[in-house]
Amino acid sequence: MKEVTEPEIIKNYTIIGQGLAGSILAYFLLKEGQNVQIFDNSEIPSSSKVAAGIYNPVTGKRLVKTWLADEIFPFLEDFYPQLEKELNAKFFFSMPLFHPFPDVATQKFFRSDHIPDDFFDFCSLEFENNHRIEIVNSDLGGITMKHAGWVDLKVMLSAFRTFFLERNVLIETTSIPENTNVITIFCEGYHGKFNPHFRYLPFNPVKGEIVDIEIQNLDLQEIINQGVFVIPLGDNTFRLGATYKWDVLDFIPTNEGADILTEKYYKLMKPQMRVLSQQAGVRPATKDRRPFLGMHPEIENLGIFNGFGSKGVSLAPFFGNQFADFLIHKKELHPEVNINRFASLYLRR
Ligand SMILES: Cc1cc2nc3c(=O)[nH]c(=O)nc-3n(C[C@H](O)[C@H](O)[C@H](O)COP(=O)(O)OP(=O)(O)OC[C@H]3O[C@@H](n4cnc5c(N)ncnc54)[C@H](O)[C@@H]3O)c2cc1C
Question: Rounded to two decimals, what is the model's pTM?
Fold first, then answer.
């Protein structure tokens, strides 16, 4: 992470939204000695306050390393522990993530010798279920992801809020300034889809629900994930999630969501559980599954930092740092995140 340096040029930035994205971007700009003012409207719901916060370098049905994993994971493993020290709060929980093989065909695939060597930088393999016999409904073994864990985003955002308020950086308000000459970066999460300046961007938001559950006498030191994830929170409490729904986009928990999660839980896990609470949110996902970073094609003081989908925890630190470098030092943005990839959509809007 960056040391505070003497800034070459100090600019004024307005950040709209104090979710995961806005907080991290504001933090990197402040670290570079820039003037920052954040406006957050708590009447607009935030996904970060609902998110499970998992980071995991190997995902998808084919269990492959995620995009840019070799750069993004070392960065976040450095970033969050240092941030904990600076914000004086505990929210980063590094822990292995066990992914049981879903079927014999997958187990067979991973037994074969065409698995690339660098796969083992991130994972280890087991082909039986000796020490989870009382826990998981499968005896095929599975993959343990090493550079995984979860971030308690509620705790982190609350610590960020205190940090920003102490520095007079955060304004909590329902009225956002319009037409200022200051560089304004919109970090509005799902709400960005309705921003008149950026709604030409291809958002693909996804509703998600999670439940907190109680399981008596289960000493789990890892996340288990197959169809659903189970995160140990301590004191017999666990977080179970998540659902994916594209048609109804609201922040309202449903019976259907709880039923889907309960059914998937008992498919994966043996111990009895009891639901304690439930939450819903909308992930700010994008059609090409890459974030939206960059400046408006015509209005040069407006920018966006959004589109982190279901991977905000892993992507926001790396790209927050990159975006701050772009804004202050004019360094290049990664072409796959730069919104200039949608210039033709802007012209056709
Ligand atoms: C059920 C569920 C589970 C998830 N699990 C994970 C997970 O395990 N791992 C992971 O990495 N990600 C997960 N996510 C995704 C994660 O929530 C997002 O990637 C991330 O939180 C997005 O952060 P954000 O700051 O872009 O948006 P938000 O968190 O939505 O923040 C936007 C902020 O801007 C404010 N705002 C919006 N518009 C305005 C405006 N016009 N004026 C003022 N303020 C405004 C809002 O009040 C809010 O504070 C999950 C999401 C859901 C719903």
Answer: 0.95
